[in-house]
Amino acid sequence: MAGLLFIARTALVWFIVALAVTALWHIVGFPHIRPLDWLFAVAVIGFFAAKIIHAIAHLRRVQLIKGRIDTDALSPRQRRQIEIPFDAAEAFAIVDASVRELADVHVDESARDSLNLRARVEKPVAPRAYVFAGIDFGFLVVRRHQILATLTPANGTSSALLICEAAGGIFSDWLQFDDGSNLENVEALTRAITRRIAERRRGEQASVQQTSTEKELAVARLNLLHAQIEPHFLYNTLASAQILTRTDPARADEMLGNLIAYLRSSVPRAENSLSTLGEELERSRAYLEILRIRMGDRLKLQIEVPGNLEPTPFPTMMLQTLVENAIKHGLEPKFGGGTVWILARESAGKLVVTVADDGQGFNAQSSGTGIGLKNVQERLKLAYGAAASFVIAANFPNGVAATITVPASTDAAATGANHA
Fold first, then answer.
1. Is 348 exposed, middle or buried, given 0-12, 13-18 or 19+ CB atoms closer than 10 A?
2. Ordered DSSP codes for 272-305
3. In this structure, are residues 330 and 239 in contact, taking their beta carbons and an 8 Å threshold?
4. In the CATH scheme, what is the homologous superfamily, with its name and number, of domain 248-419?
5. Are 240 and 256 in contact (CB under 8 A)?
6. Residue 338 to residue 417: CA distance in whole angstroms
7. Beta-sheet pairing, 338-347 with 157-166
8. By the 8 A CB rule, do 413 and 349 touch?
9. How far apart are CA 47 and CA 133, in angstroms?
10. CATH number, domain 76-203
């Protein structure tokens, strides 16, 4: 029905034009051109028929583009309202890029501050496509179109108003055909904007997935590092207990008691990475008591940890790793043994824990770059990022001092402990 009405309207408009031209012909005509009246009549009828055929061709093209024929699709002025789920700056960039993708487009104005864009589209017409009897009738076909885009921001989203129309004003509405060019332009812009929104969404989803994957990898790496640390201490303890069962059963019994104390504090943490400085200190004390049985007077211990700091969250097994490193690389190889200090203090919102010894210090066999210390550095980096630090340095006059600094606040430290 819309197609029939369009053809009827076109026929009526051009019939009126033909009548007006015929009347003008007879009003201003001269006697010597009267014999050409028949030729003028044939030309008018032929042109009228050509416009009807052109109107039918316009209908066919609109149907090919839209898939249906209705009043809105046949209009030379097309309007679309598109909701873009991004802020104004990003939405304007999407619209601007989509407009510039059109063929034969020339952007006249792209005002990012006022969120307005104006462009024109020049449609080339074949030189002789509308030439009849030596007269160029190309003016009856819309060659120039304009695109107006206006964005309205609202709460992190934007609404884009697109207007694609012929540049000829009311003349193009009644006497010209755009051959579906404006419909084609507005549909192309809608598809381009939708595609770019979808690409942004896929990019965001990929970024979220990548972040999730990286987090899972970090947790897996922490679990692996944790698994590398715990057996190291357990195997050393069992090896020492095995030796003492053959040489000194009483001390072996005492060592096994300390081992039980260690396991009692360690096993519950195997499935829960949360720990405190007090719990880690209890674990390390049990370890050192085991070592004191084996080393005797060669091992001395000094602990200076304020009671108010013991509830502070602290990464699991890190204190144990530093203590074990001080024994293995500092005191055991040194003739006569030495002392291990465990010190803790709070400074500027940070918990500072130091494990020092007066052993043999750095040498070719111990340079402070062993697997245990690397694990400590890696775990701190993954758990706290730049909020934590690990420093190992020479102790004066002998030995090594290793210091771990983590956030002392409950929230920050608990977050780090969860990742550790």
1. exposed
2. ----BHHHHHHHHHHHHHHHHHHHGGGEEEEEE-
3. no
4. Histidine kinase-like ATPase, C-terminal domain (3.30.565.10)
5. no
6. 32
7. unpaired
8. no
9. 11
10. 3.30.530.50
- Contacts of residue 28, defined as CB under 8 A and 6 or more positions apart, other chains included, come to none
**Closest by Cα among 73, 78, 84 to 115:** 84
Answer yes or no: are the C-beta atoms of 120 and 147 closer than 8 Å. yes
Structure tokens at 360: 């043999």
Nearest to 167 by CA among 155, 154, 185, 152: 185
Judge residue 190's burial from the number of C-beta atoms within 10 Å of its C-beta, 0-12 exposed, 13-18 middle, 19 or more buried: middle
Listed by start position, the domains of the chain span 1-74, 76-203, 248-419
Cβ-contact 388, 380 below 8 angstroms: yes
* Cα–Cα distance, 260 to 247 (Å, whole number): 20
- Give dist(CA 105, CA 148) in Å, integer: 12
* Helix, strand, or coil (residue 175): coil
> What's the rounded Cα separation, in Å, for the pair 58 and 51?
10
Q: Which residue from 283, 408, 266, 416 is spatially nearest to 348, judged by alpha carbons?
A: 408
- Using CB atoms within 10 Å of the CB of residue 355, give its burial: 0 to 12 exposed, 13 to 18 middle, 19+ buried: buried
The model's pTM: 0.46
Cβ burial 54-77 (10 Å sphere, 16+ → b, else e): bbeebbebbeebbeebeeebbbbb
If phi over 0 gives left and psi between -120 and 50 gives alpha, with beta otherwise, what is residue 318?
Answer: alpha
- Residue 397: asked if its preceding bond is cis (omega within 30°), the reply is yes
Residue 199: CA count within 13 A, CB half-sphere: 8
Tokens at 2, concatenated = 């819309």
Name the burial class of residue 419, with classes exposed (0-12), middle (13-18) and buried (19+) by CB atoms within 10 angstroms of its CB.
middle
| Residue 395 DSSP code | P
d(CA 413, CA 411): 6
pLDDT in tens, the chain (420 residues): 766 776 777 677 777 777 777 777 666 665 555 556 666 677 777 767 777 777 777 777 777 777 777 777 777 788 899 999 999 899 999 999 999 988 888 898 888 888 999 998 876 554 444 544 455 555 555 567 889 999 999 888 999 999 888 776 665 565 666 667 778 888 889 999 999 999 988 888 888 877 777 776 666 665 555 555 556 667 766 777 788 788 878 878 887 888 887 777 665 444 445 689 998 998 888 888 877 877 788 899 999 999 999 999 998 888 988 998 888 888 888 888 899 999 999 988 899 999 999 988 887 455 555 677 887 888 888 778 888 999 999 988 889 999 999 998 755 544 444 444
